[in-house]
Write a structure and sequence with these properties.
The protein is an alpha/beta fold and 206 residues long. It is built from 11 helices and 5 strands. Helices cover 51% and strands 11% of the residues.
């Protein structure tokens, strides 16, 4: 397969993982592991988290709404405290930025495809120059794993999904990409993910 583009999730792939921050927060507060993710999934498109990532809720309103979603499901929760911790601990991963630069030098396109929220966080906003396309759920009004946002990023790169590789740290986001024809890599540990990407692309990234 001749790939023309590599598409990267941000948090947990190019940036440190917010999932790790959430896991540590749950442990510190004595909350059952995976509680936050279950609330996000169970509340679905109408839940506070989904609405935040579609750009429908500003952060201040999200804090109140997500606390309410969590209270309905179990323990008391501070969305504000959790999100402040995420902002402090999700800086760029140098090895990923180096790999992105190498990919572009070899003539392939790169894109960011991220579920995010409207924020002034520098770690997110300083990344745009590393990519040929930068697709954000909070800007587009649609979030992964909705197929429409994958189609948007492919259109902006002018590539068919079958000519793209997609890296994400969440399985349900990778499932949609694979169904559309993309090659996919689940990112648990950055070094292993880059080794998988090297195998697909046929050149070194480290």
């Amino acid at each position: 397969m001749s790939f023309r583009a590599v598409i990267f999730d941000l948090g947990g792939v190019v940036l440190g993982s917010p999932l790790h921050v959430i896991r540590d927060y749950e442990k510190e507060k004595g909350i059952e592991p995976g509680f936050v993710n279950r609330v996000v999934v169970d509340t679905g498109p109408s839940g506070a988290w989904s609405r935040l990532e579609r750009g429908e809720l500003p952060l201040e309103e999200f804090f109140v709404a997500f606390d309410r979603d969590c209270a309905a499901a179990g323990p008391a929760f501070s969305a504000r405290e959790m999100m402040e911790r995420i902002a402090l601990t999700t800086g760029p991963r140098p090895e990923m930025l180096f790999a992105i630069g190498t990919i572009r030098e070899r003539g392939l396109s790169t894109a960011a495809l991220t579920n995010n929220w409207k924020s002034d966080d520098a770690a997110w906003n300083e990344l745009t120059d590393h990519f040929d396309a930068y697709v954000e759920s909070a800007v587009e009004g649609v979030r992964k794993p909705d197929p429409r946002i994958y189609q948007i990023v492919c259109e902006r790169l002018s590539v068919e999904p079958s000519h793209a590789v997609f890296l994400d740290d969440i399985g349900r986001n990778l499932k949609t990409a694979k169904e559309l024809g993309m090659a996919t890599i689940k990112v648990d540990e950055p070094g292993e993910a880059l080794r998988e990407l090297e195998t697909l692309l046929g050149f070194d990234l480290r």
